[in-house]
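Incident log, structure service

09:12 report received: a user says their structure output differs between two submissions of the same chain.
09:20 pulled the input from the user's history:
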Amino acid sequence: MKKPIMADLSLLLVTLIWGTTFVLVQNAIDFLEPFSFNGIRFLIAAILLIVCLLIFERRQLKQLNFKIFASGVFIGFWLFLGYVTQTMGLLYTSTSKAGFITGLNVVLVPLFSMFLLKQYPSKNAILGVLIATFGLFLLTMTDAATLNIGDGFVFICAISFALHIILTGKFSSKFPTLLLTIIQVTTVALLSIGSSFLFEDWRKSLNKDILLSKDVIVALIITSVFATALAFFIQTNFQKYTSATRVALIFAMEPVFAAIAGYFWALERLSISALFGCILIFTGMICAELPTNKIPLLRKSVKNN
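09:34 re-ran on a clean worker, output below:
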């Protein structure tokens, strides 16, 4: 199987994991506050990845230097900022609006790629982005309330996740995958734990009755192993074989998988417009995968000028 196809399928698996664990996370943060949950989740994931490094890829430690450390911290910072601003935004805005605004990173990624990396999306990719964005609107926007400060925080979240995708693609081809993943995941863990001490009742988070509750343990184990350690390792490893725009389109499937998981596990029901939105997001992703000519849509030719 060609590497780009394998990369896209692997990233779709990551999206499936994130989408299907959304319900677990929602249940867990009813007991454990968000920063505390993410701090423990990412810390467990970092420990698991470090153990894997020491057992299977110890030689990667020889490549540890300031460049890879700074790159991993930089990637991790934007990932952390995305989680923080999304959490802050949800205090002031609706879940549906937050879902749509976060999903706008599917538009931001190709824009940032053009300006930061000089990478221009194909015609099919641009069409796929437009279709998927409209699908996100239909799937998530169940109200038409005016904009508020929460929406601003969530938009910063969308920017952060978009930059995380772009930077992961940029640095993943330069450094060892496992080592780079460990650094970024550890960065998120430490920043989340620090935020918990600053902004949350961390004593509550250390309560044994909460930490040992079934919902929290199940959510922490599944999200730490699959939605964090495995997911970010896969993203870091395979994103070098595909474009940032295609990654953003694939990740736009997350609310679709979350909606499907909610339907089966939480007995949630989707409206007709939401179902149509799911279909459009999937159509947009497929559209970007279709063959196209090799000349990028937005690249300007000056040879004949």
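09:41 both user submissions now match this output. Likely a transient worker issue. Closing.
09:42 reviewer note: The mean pLDDT is 84. Residues 110 and 266 are 34 Å apart (CA to CA).
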